[in-house]
Amino acid sequence: MSQTIFTAMPTVTYEGPTSQNELAYRWYDPDQVVLGQPLREHMRFAVAYWHSLVMNGADPFGAPTLHRPWMDRDDAMQAARDKADAAFDLFRVLDLPFFTFHDRDIAPEGDSLGQSLANFHTIADYLAEKMSTSKTRLLWGTANLFTHPRFMSGAATNPDPEIFRYAATTVKHCMDVTKALGGENYVLWGGREGYDTLLNTDMGHELEQAGRFLSLVVEYKHKIGFSGQILIEPKPKEPTTHQYDFDAATVFGFLKRFGLETEVKLNLEANHALLAGHSFEHEIATAASLGLLGSLDINRGDPLLGWDTDQFPNDLQAATLAMYHVLLAGGLGKGGMNFDAKIRRQSIDPEDLVYAHVGAVDLCARGFLKAAQLVEEGRLAAALQDRYAGWNSTENAAMLRGEVALEQIAAEAEEKGLNPQPRSGRQERLENLLARTF
Amino acid sequence: MSQTIFTAMPTVTYEGPTSQNELAYRWYDPDQVVLGQPLREHMRFAVAYWHSLVMNGADPFGAPTLHRPWMDRDDAMQAARDKADAAFDLFRVLDLPFFTFHDRDIAPEGDSLGQSLANFHTIADYLAEKMSTSKTRLLWGTANLFTHPRFMSGAATNPDPEIFRYAATTVKHCMDVTKALGGENYVLWGGREGYDTLLNTDMGHELEQAGRFLSLVVEYKHKIGFSGQILIEPKPKEPTTHQYDFDAATVFGFLKRFGLETEVKLNLEANHALLAGHSFEHEIATAASLGLLGSLDINRGDPLLGWDTDQFPNDLQAATLAMYHVLLAGGLGKGGMNFDAKIRRQSIDPEDLVYAHVGAVDLCARGFLKAAQLVEEGRLAAALQDRYAGWNSTENAAMLRGEVALEQIAAEAEEKGLNPQPRSGRQERLENLLARTF
Amino acid sequence: MSQTIFTAMPTVTYEGPTSQNELAYRWYDPDQVVLGQPLREHMRFAVAYWHSLVMNGADPFGAPTLHRPWMDRDDAMQAARDKADAAFDLFRVLDLPFFTFHDRDIAPEGDSLGQSLANFHTIADYLAEKMSTSKTRLLWGTANLFTHPRFMSGAATNPDPEIFRYAATTVKHCMDVTKALGGENYVLWGGREGYDTLLNTDMGHELEQAGRFLSLVVEYKHKIGFSGQILIEPKPKEPTTHQYDFDAATVFGFLKRFGLETEVKLNLEANHALLAGHSFEHEIATAASLGLLGSLDINRGDPLLGWDTDQFPNDLQAATLAMYHVLLAGGLGKGGMNFDAKIRRQSIDPEDLVYAHVGAVDLCARGFLKAAQLVEEGRLAAALQDRYAGWNSTENAAMLRGEVALEQIAAEAEEKGLNPQPRSGRQERLENLLARTF
Amino acid sequence: MSQTIFTAMPTVTYEGPTSQNELAYRWYDPDQVVLGQPLREHMRFAVAYWHSLVMNGADPFGAPTLHRPWMDRDDAMQAARDKADAAFDLFRVLDLPFFTFHDRDIAPEGDSLGQSLANFHTIADYLAEKMSTSKTRLLWGTANLFTHPRFMSGAATNPDPEIFRYAATTVKHCMDVTKALGGENYVLWGGREGYDTLLNTDMGHELEQAGRFLSLVVEYKHKIGFSGQILIEPKPKEPTTHQYDFDAATVFGFLKRFGLETEVKLNLEANHALLAGHSFEHEIATAASLGLLGSLDINRGDPLLGWDTDQFPNDLQAATLAMYHVLLAGGLGKGGMNFDAKIRRQSIDPEDLVYAHVGAVDLCARGFLKAAQLVEEGRLAAALQDRYAGWNSTENAAMLRGEVALEQIAAEAEEKGLNPQPRSGRQERLENLLARTF
Asked: Is residue A195 helix, strand or coil?
């Protein structure tokens, strides 16, 4: 293996909270057992190939600022191998258990569909080889159905059925590769599955297309015996004006409509939640209540900005609340926590990538520990228990089960002269309980 | 009937586009036949009792500015009758076919549940009497389950089952009265059905409660033979931090979950769409594509403000797009267009109420005429037809119907070396076609 | 003094971080000396009369939920005295050094201007009496020029000059009372100084009015020898569509225009910053860079909601950043930290008020301690120093002072073939340094 | 001149409102005299070189979709000439009087500062040659100080003074070229003049730098006898988290601080106004009231999206209100209306560029005609006159001039027992007057 820009960097290790080493983990001790499981298995962190290896710092007003050795090379396949070397070297430095990728992150587009697929399989084999000597496994694979101009009007929901076919073909191969590499999930993010203007869009038709496409994926999963989860990643907008997979609740309705609610779960992202007008914990709690919590894309947005900034998380309270709701939901199972986050455009040095991951891993770990503490203390849960206790009575439980009719409820209420009094919601006290954790 | 503040005002009539009379309809000719139906039946305009008769101009930083004769009176029941007199006088002035109300708009809260219900039925009878000599009918009734402190933590979704019962009882009587007054729909807006903080909220439990409540309503509707539509009005937030009926797509998922998607439709509001991050036409098109388009609350928000301003509409292009999607959906059926809009706090004179409605009626009518023109010209539809034409081929239609498997699509694509080329979405040209209508 | 709803509550005391007492201060030790000063003098906390004693829980969709003994009473003046008793009892419980008020918070509107002023002076005298036996002093007074309908179209910027006069008269008396009570600042918040629609607004004229009004205030301050600061509180909107005192930078321009930039400073509020699209620390840093930092209104908004939620702060990181910039600016001087925050509408019990303040005081104190730690460690400052070090060279300093012309800079650059290379902004590393503080 | 992609297209001409030709002007008759001036001189339309000739359809999630013959060519200088040929051919097709450019739009970056400047002057000469046979003149020139990585942390406000020098050198040459080409204005847009995080930013220092930079520009303007206007283009954020030139009011304060308020005016953009939380007419009215209205960047944003979409305008009401406030301000003088708007990424055909401009020109022209009608009818102005009439009285005018002291106003008000009554703001009536224009 060639030298990489990360070769000289030592592997980041756990040194504990008092460490002054900026490139050590202070809270993420993968072996620490919390609520019966080591942190490693609770968190299941993954490095995102695209943001860490592909992203070049360009923005809508600026040229690339990050110039990595594998970028802008004539021999695209060799560059892809060099990139893979660097990727696994970075995984070694960070010592995290998983990574994630799009087909296009790892291998270059070819001159034809056949060539693109061949490139992809070739580099996938190279990755398999790298994985054989690495501790880092594949959390999920996915297909990039949004960058190439052919997808500018959608992939599954393109008005042109030939593009639907092209996208389907691409996904078929991505699923094959994901399975071959031992991926534990397969993700669909419909970046272009939406519209820029309703004036040129038949939304009803496009939703039918989306339903069919997802059904094809689910059917194929069973056919090939892929045991991973199929995940949809909601996002409300950007690059589109409206994306069909708006948020967790919207995707639930979509899955129900096409009878896929037991086949597909959600990969939720903090920044996407924000763009939809939700907190991350809201999306997690919603998915959990609908049985759809699958995996997390860990990052943060900026509530003062209206686009997907995909920043590394740095807000301990937000992280704690997200982790608390993951714990309430019983954990992530086959899912994990994928750093779908990119260093800022001004953070041009390779070490910035390491700073960013170390900070984020530690923040999530610390948030998780705080959340576990909240669970163990049980005060928030007790307050909730108490607040809904009235529903435990025989007759109220029966009412909730549907055993009493409206007119009967009314007759009883009128007879009793029902006059229920409001009770304090105690929001500030509960917020204090949370704040005191920090 | 006593004199009212509207008695001296003449009935507003259609005078045509060249009229200089500020209190005449220039575009709303109820008898004009468009696309086979008179405008009156297309539009089905309604006056909202609460905004027009009850709203007093208070805001979070200001005291009431509107002082109507029926407000702040000692004899609340006589005040309610005077208010009803004024309401029907206003309906006479505006000459619109429908009105809408909450129980609490028409009758005062009593000292007990029994007294509140009695007040409500007494004034409902008075309304029935007024209606017998009025042309204005009831588009829909609804229950106010958000103003009284007992509902501060929700009605159907209150942690206290006694409040669920209280709310159910209230709705039962509102449905009875709506049926008795010939209402064509019954609406549920869950102003407090959501949360202020997840810290004190069991979202899963509350969603179960919401599902049960709606099921009770639907069961009761059938029991009493109410032939109107049951409608849910989505709103994402305010007064709550998060409301469960976020938007059309969310409510669809909710209805599917509880098996109510053929029983309940949507009452969509422009300002609520905006708060959810959608255009009004998006919500209409979404509802239409899901078979849920029921009725409209006509108003506008201010995209630069983050709350429900409920302004009277004044944007012709926005109105045209909304009407265009209503036409594409085949119209509103039993639904209508309810002016859920309030005059500004500084508009303190009774005539401001008339200015506001006349402008709004005319704007909607003109938007409808423009939309009908777009339909008749057919250029937008033709562009759409053309854009999706590829799906009409035998094999693509079969693919959409689910007759081809993923691996088969892939095999064919690879064999052909599929290389579909992007086609212009022509957004600017279509926007010009729209703009040229004005 | 009569019994109040707070009489039975003990005074909250500092018990240290390990205390399990929910109604003790864990971080706010007023006597702890940090960076050379006791916390009490750094923080200068104030209780806001309006939110704590006047606010009744009403919202745009809901009736009052808080029913305090002094509300809705026939004898308004006795009620005002009872309210004052309760206020000082609350100050006693919280043991905070300051309070703040509007004229209308402490005394009821009368039937005439004369009566309103008389009421105000009468109760002001009562407050003076209360203060003689209380440790709590007046941070600032202000006039409520937004609640009464006469101010619906503005006070200083009202189209009607009689209302300008009425407002001026009111402010004159508020300044007199503030001085008499030993207030250390006088604040102007122009809740209605803006517009709902430009269609009925002459913005140029209104800005002239605003400039004149503020000049009157400044002139009068000097005339009566009031040694406190005059402060303007920026807010971008709500209740107006646009308020002229949009944010710190806007007010700076306004002050410069009327030559008042050395006479007036800013009272900055976190939630108002958010509504203007800024972080709180941005507003603090901006004010500091313009020499305008005066005082703070401590609260938080909800970035997912578009109105002034005025919540008690609960975000430690946000608090730390605000405090850090206060420290960078050299502290607040005569200003202080006023809890312009209200308990949620569902928090109906008096103890909720105490929970809320205790949590907020502690959060701010802890944030301050963290900020002081950042200052003492000096790593953020050192990074900044290093980043701008180039400007310290003789020739670059001269260039910044304006001693080199554009063409000269260009000539030198071209001669040298200047080719400066970008340097990493190190954002993630600096974020980690911040995060490691927690 | 070589053939271009526009060569086959005929020049767009005015055909009047009944024309069915989609590529004709229906409202923009440049010779039509309105309010004493031909439309051509009122509007002063300009084509933006960057959006029309340089923009390639890439977005943060997608590769370029527009492939023009001059893009991605080996011989960058020949490509620049071909692009210029195409540009002037497009100007010929659109028949608009002005264009605008950045240095980098017209000429490629070289290997060194010297080479970059040489490239720029070479192509500027080529443009001069093209202009000699074209009717299209230069509205303004500007420097691109945001795309190249060297500017990633700012240009004038970069922490590195060498980059300040590089930027100054660039601007010097851009001013020279702008003057040489007869440009009527010179614009500064500070795309990177702001911060991504306050953690690595010394805002006070950077604002000093910005002040110095602008002073250099103003001094140089006088030195070379450039008679055009210097314009700053406000934008609140994007690509930065916060940009110092936030909005019109903020820039006013900045100019006052550095004594430049009579030297510099504003180039206002609709989409930037939206991102700052303002309407376009608000920014125009604000600039006008401060004497800073310079020129307009015509486009629109999407209020449901949080980034700079730079769409071609298509909202007649918004255009009318903007034009109305331009008319109230007395017109744009040396400024103009520059289409800082780009076709959508899916609009990949050259004719889409023509559709877009034709629609936008017509929309603005029609908005202007509507605005002129509003001015001529005078009803909005009369309502305003009436609303503020009270200030015309001798004593109120004296009060506004500052001839009465606060205590005197108060004494008179108290003596009179002032009791001013609110008057209706008539918002809905005025909105109707506006709506009736359409």
From this structure: strand
